[in-house]
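From the shared-data thread, chain only:
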Amino acid sequence: MSDDKNGSVQPEQKLVLRPVVGLTENLPKDELEQIVVQAIKAHRRLRDLAEVRQDEWHAIEAHAAATGTEPSRIAYVTAMIDMHAQQTVLSTLLDVLGYIPSVPGD
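Structure, as tokens:
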């Protein structure tokens, strides 16, 4: 996010991973859809892991005084970074595909 001259926060341009676009833009739709479905499933796994890591961190934090950065907090931050990186990949793939494919729940 960036500040405009009035001090209000404005969203930045959408991040697009050009290498992902280059690798996938000429694939047949059915093949690209398979890749997108796998990316959606990967994102769901990473989201679930991040939630588990957050719960672990909060449980430990609630029972002990924080003395610096705890390993559980580092695990949570790392899981969130992984999830958001995958979200950027997924967003780019969805842009190339042009629609959200149906993905059965896990």
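The beta strands are 2-3, 9-10.
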